[in-house]
Specification:
Two copies of one chain form a homodimer. With 210 residues, the first copy, chain A, is α/β, with parallel strands linked by helices. Chain A contains ten helices and nine strands. Chain A has two domains: 70 residues, Arc Repressor Mutant, subunit A (Orthogonal Bundle); 113 residues, Rossmann fold (3-Layer(aba) Sandwich), CATH 3.40.50. Chain B binds a DNA duplex (22 and 22 nucleotides) through helix 1, helix 3 and strand 2.
DNA sequence: AAATGTGAAGTTGTTCACAGCT
DNA sequence: AGCTGTGAACAACTTCACATTT
């Protein structure tokens, strides 16, 4: 993963900010207006000093003696992360996993809209998903340009992942959430985040050994 | 995540060992018998010194001037990770995501077998998945005991995730791969690995800002 | 010559201790 | 009194430099 603009906030802090945001959103839903670093840290599963340090990387939002304004803080974090407005994304590869991700509501809930899906075999893909958004790979460029797409979810087989990643970079996608179990080679301006379910399980397997 | 037995290998090194294992398996399939730390590191997307350091945390497997024996090294790593024999796991929560994970072949390919799935509403779950493995939550204990299950994939709604996690811990599961977007509270002997797709996307969103 | 293994140096991330607001 | 903000100490991880083996 590469960072372009502000190199100052640690990668891990960014990750935790997303977690804080999730917690803050729940608090807001529950009508809670103010929260201390201690309570929020507990909800997020981190130490309170770490939470405060993470926040000071990009500003000062708290009131001493009182805590943080839930709604203000969640606004600041989502501004920073770039999710304060709905972001359009595409999904490439409508196999088992891809079809499931198309129906997954979690993305929409957190501010991402899957505006289109692509597959090498549109007919087959349509059998797996009732979604009307499925297009041939050749349509990628026009859809990306039309919607101003910057991010893609890549759920194609590992054998074609690199090739499709190249195409994505070529049509102007700069962020790839990669589900293929391999390390993608991409141009500098493209960031990749990897999700590998088998590796997660394997990891767990190590940690549960006596 | 908690570690019980060997505290000496860094968490991050364990994660990378899984990646190396994936690469080694591919090499083995392609009939390659020997590989240098440099080449393997490149395939895994890390520096070669890091790879060598990671390996020395649990032994010495290379031949100077030559490199590593692909098949021997992959054997050593999967022994360490505890995936050298097929591991039975259960899946809890057959909603959108859960149903998809049931059809996902990646787990089987990496040495995990989903032997049973559970849902609060078996009838509804059966509509989403043709799998014959779907049971009521109440059957968890007997299945876990019968198959000697130690790991579970948790894909239930966030509202019931903690409750189901408690049940899992109660019936003797010690490893949970958690897809619910929240921090689970579990007993010390239970390890949790979190996968949060929305957070991954959100993260990416930060890194692609100009 | 080619490649591994490793102590030491360097870097990054986390926690502490406490100063400073409200 | 309660809680945030932060420099400094600490811990974890990564990289370097090079000795060592085949």
């Amino acid at each position: 993963m590469k960072k372009s603009g502000k190199p100052e906030i640690p990668r891990k802090a960014i990750y935790r900010l997303s977690i804080y945001l999730r917690c803050l959103q729940r608090l807001k839903t529950n009508g809670i207006e103010t929260i201390s670093s201690d309570a929020l840290a507990k909800a997020a599963g981190v130490k309170s000093t770490q939470l405060r340090k993470d926040l000071t990387y990009f500003g000062q939002f708290g009131t001493r003696g009182l805590g943080y304004d839930v709604s203000q803080l969640s606004g600041m974090i989502s501004d920073l992360l770039g999710t304060s407005s709905l972001q359009p994304v595409i999904l490439v590869g409508v196999g088992n996993l891809g079809a499931a991700l198309l129906t997954y509501r979690g993305f929409q809930e957190e501010g991402f809209e899957v505006v289109a899906a692509f597959d090498a075999d549109v007919a087959e893909a349509r059998k797996r998903s009732k979604s009307k958004k499925i297009h041939a790979l050749s349509k990628m460029r026009s859809v990306v340009q039309q919607h101003g797409i910057r991010m893609a979810i890549l759920a194609v087989p590992v054998t074609v992942a690199q090739e499709v990643a190249n195409q994505l970079a070529d049509v102007g996608v700069v962020g790839i959430l990669n589900f293929a179990p391999m390390v993608l080679q991409v141009p500098d301006e493209v960031s990749v985040s990897n999700v590998n379910l088998a590796i997660e399980l394997e990891n767990l397997s190590y940690f549960i050994q006596d």
